[in-house]
Amino acid sequence: MTRGDRVGPARARRAGAWAALLLAGAATLAGCSREERAAEGAPADAASVAAPREVAPEFTLKDLGGRDVTLASLRGKTVLIDFWATWCPPCEFQIPVLNEIYDAHREQGVEILGVSVDKDGPDVVGTYTAKHGVRYTILLGDEALARDFGAPGFPALVVVAPDGTIHSRHVGLVEKADLERILAELLAAKAG
């Protein structure tokens, strides 16, 4: 046996470990789903712009304090709806970005609604959001509502324009720069 024969299997094991790590990372960035996503149902890219713009489905959901929140009550504002779950590891990574966006733009009429699709109720969701320092409104929803908004997995972010139409959908993690670009466009259109 030569030195190359002994090193080859070790390198192969390391390469396999790296490949597994990269696949896990790709899955994390893509998002979570309790059901396997059908290849033909998944969008080709992480963001899909709705055209022509469709009206966002109306809803009334409870917040963590038990108060009703309606999408209709937010007409005139740009609304980012983040569909997420406590059992979805990538969803945790979206929270700091949404906190930053909320802090920077709430005075400009931007609202963020974190819609939990958990079935465990407000205690579990409230504990999770407190632990992770969520500063925007959290609502208790379900996967059916997420599907109504076109979310095939989680996290999924839907941007609703001030006129109540869906501006865009984003599956998986969304970068702060991308959200800033979208908000600049919508805020400029509202001002103009």
User: How many strands?
Assistant: 8
Distance linking N and C termini = 75 Å
The order of strands across the largest sheet is: 1-8-7-4-5-6-2-3
Radius of gyration of CA atoms, rounded to a whole number: 20 Å
Question: What is the molecular shape?
Answer: globular
CATH superfamily of the largest domain: Glutaredoxin
Structural class: alpha+beta
The succession of helices and strands, N to C, reads HEEEEHEHEHEEH
CATH class of the largest domain: Alpha Beta
Main pleated sheet: 8 strands, mixed
In CATH, the topology of the largest domain is named Glutaredoxin
* Count of individual domains: 2
Helix content: 40-55%
What portion of the residues fall into strands of 2 or more residues? 15-25%
Mean pLDDT: 82
Number of helices: 5
CATH architecture of the largest domain: 3-Layer(aba) Sandwich
Structure description:
There is one protein chain. This protein is α+β, with helices and mostly antiparallel strands. It has two domains: 1-30; 47-191, Glutaredoxin (3-Layer(aba) Sandwich), CATH 3.40.30.10. It has five helices and eight strands, in the order H-E-E-E-E-H-E-H-E-H-E-E-H. The chain has an eight-stranded mixed β-sheet, covered by helices on one side. A hairpin with a 4-residue loop joins strand 2 (60-63) and strand 3. The longest helix is centred in the first third of the chain and has 28 residues, at 3-30. The radius of gyration is 20 Å and the shape is globular.
